[in-house]
Amino acid sequence: MAHAISTRSLTKRFGRREVLHGVDFMVETGSIFGMIGPNGAGKTTTMRCLLDIIRPTDGEVRVLGKDPREGGPALRRRIGYLPGELFLEGRVTGRKLLAHYQAISGPVAPGRIDGLAERLGLDLDRHTRKLSKGNKQKLGLIQAFMHDPELLVLDEPTSGLDPLVQQEFHAMMREAQHKGQTIFLSSHVLSEVQQTADTVAILRDGRIVAVESVSGLREGAVRRLRLTASAITAHDAGALLGSVPGVGHVEVLDSGDGGVTVAATLEGSIQPLVRMLGSLQLTDLVLDEPDLEESVLKMYSSPVGDAS
């Protein structure tokens, strides 16, 4: 099976309000696919259509080769789902609640639940009503991962988790991918998905703005550059830097006995810049990591269909 998920012209209307406008994307089997977008972009609606929690108004959806409307319980057992708004029965312990989910989702390997709880730092014998938001989120993650499903659908999975637990969650995702599982997750924060995702879809106002590999996003992202060079005038340094493809916003910060300090931005390949730097007598050079957040924000703000 080439694709674990595929949609074509996925459209969803609630009354007269259309919230998904012909969404098309595919998720390769065994990949980690991240969907990012601001709150209200349609991420949760898309996931619910994939899982037949709500039904599309129009378009086609395939999940693990099946139409979700016809897959029934057999298809659902092959999926692990963490909803964005997690509601848990409060009168039972986490352990009893997971036993209930296990009866629904199918076989769970012995020791699997306790192992996940230990990794995430969760006490399964506490009543769920006494758990903090972060611990409830851990419980939700365990129920999604515990039966090793073919497909994991995770809506804002790191919500409420502290940074150390987020790192453990990222490790769990990489292990799942190594075992051949597919992961589809959503977030409104790019940094949450860029650490682990292979491909990112950017959703805005119910439309896919772009589908790009994380490496492709990095290549097209904006870097900030600052260099100091000796034996060159401020004018020549600025002109030389400005002649490099992808360099913009050139600004001379200082010019004195210590040399000329120039700042700029770089978009695209760094190779032309590297070749140019060989002609300078550098005394200092700072090239920041690509600012993916800035690149994605440009896609959010540009007119739809003009974000390439």
Question: How would you characterize the overall build of this protein?
Answer:
By secondary structure, the protein is of the alpha/beta class. Helices cover 34% and strands 32% of the residues. The chain has 11 helices and 13 strands. The chain has helices spanning 43-50, 68-76, 94-105, 112-120, 133-145, 163-178, 190-194, 214-220, 234-242, 271-277, 292-301; strands at residues 3-14, 17-28, 32-36, 58-63, 79-82, 151-155, 182-187, 199-204, 207-213, 222-230, 247-256, 259-267, 281-287. Helix 6 (163-178) links the parallel strand 6 and strand 7. The model has no long low-confidence stretch (mean pLDDT 89).
Q: Helices, strands, pairings?
A:
Layout: E1 3-14, E2 17-28, E3 32-36, H1 43-50, E4 58-63, H2 68-76, E5 79-82, H3 94-105, H4 112-120, H5 133-145, E6 151-155, H6 163-178, E7 182-187, H7 190-194, E8 199-204, E9 207-213, H8 214-220, E10 222-230, H9 234-242, E11 247-256, E12 259-267, H10 271-277, E13 281-287, H11 292-301
Parallel strand pairs: 3-7, 3-8, 5-6, 6-7
Antiparallel strand pairs: 1-2, 1-4, 8-9, 10-12, 10-13, 11-12
Helix pairs in contact: 4-5
Summarize this, please?
This protein has eleven helices and 13 strands. It has 308 residues and is α/β, with parallel strands linked by helices.
Structural class: alpha/beta
The proportion of residues in beta strands is 25-35%
Roughly what is the average pLDDT, rounded to an integer? 89
Order of helices and strands: EEEHEHEHHHEHEHEEHEHEEHEH
CATH homologous superfamily title of the largest domain: P-loop containing nucleotide triphosphate hydrolases
Strand order of the largest sheet: 5-6-7-3-8-9
Low-confidence spans: none
Work out the radius of gyration: 24 Å
Question: Could you describe the largest sheet, including whether it forms a barrel?
Answer: 6 strands, mixed
Secondary structure tally: strands: 13
Question: What would CATH call the class of the largest domain?
Answer: Alpha Beta
Distance between the termini: 30 Å
Query: Number of folding domains?
Result: 2
Level-2 CATH architecture of the largest domain: 3-Layer(aba) Sandwich
The portion of residues assigned to helices is: 25-40%
Total of helices = 11
CATH fold label of the largest domain: Rossmann fold
